[in-house]
Amino acid sequence: MTILVNIIIGVIMGIAIVGVANLLKKPQDNKAKQISFGVVGVLFGALGSVAADQLLIYGPNFLGVSLLPSMVGGLVLAFVVVYPMKRWFKF
After folding, report:
1. Rounded distance, CA 50 to CA 27, Å?
2. Contact present, 14 and 73 (Cβ < 8 Å)
3. Which residues contact 56 (CB under 8 A, 6 or more apart)?
4. Is 0.85 surpassed by the pTM of this model?
5. Which of 10, 40, 51, 84 could form a disulfide with 46 if both were Cys (CB 3.0 to 4.6 A apart)?
6. Three-class SS of residue 73?
7. Residues 6+ away with beta carbon under 8 Å from 15
8. Cβ–Cβ under 8 Å, residues 5 and 49
9. In the chain, where the domains are located
10. Cα–chain-centroid distance for residue 68?
């Protein structure tokens, strides 16, 4: 159950990062690039959330999940992947 909650938190954080990145730099006209950009951002947000919760125990708990590390891990790993895609690969 905790992993599922981590994944949900990470997906939300990944969607937030992808949304902010698309607001700051307009997405390409190519639909395949837009879809792949969104999927990669959300996927790595979920992975970052799970990894951070496994490594750190800090802050308030919800259903056995440390909320602060999960949220920050999802944001950071999604940003680390989304930034180069927008900057260097022109997504």
Report:
1. 28
2. no
3. 66, 69
4. yes
5. 10
6. helix
7. 41, 42, 45
8. no
9. 2-87
10. 14
Average pLDDT for runs of 10 along the chain of length 91: 94 96 88 93 96 89 90 95 91 80
- CB-based contacts of 37: which residues, under 8 Å, 6+ apart? 18, 27, 82, 85, 86, 91
How many angstroms from the chain centroid is the CA of residue 69?
Answer: 13
User: H or E stretch including 66?
Assistant: strand 65-66
For the record, the structure tokens of 24 come out as: 């700051």
Half-sphere exposure of 83 (CA within 13 A, CB side): 6
The tokens of 3 are what?
Answer: 């992993």
Read off the tokens for 80: 């680390």
In the numeric block, which tokens belong to residue 48?
């970052």
DSSP at 89:
S
Q: Would you state the structure tokens that stand for residue 19, as one six-digit string?
A: 């949304």
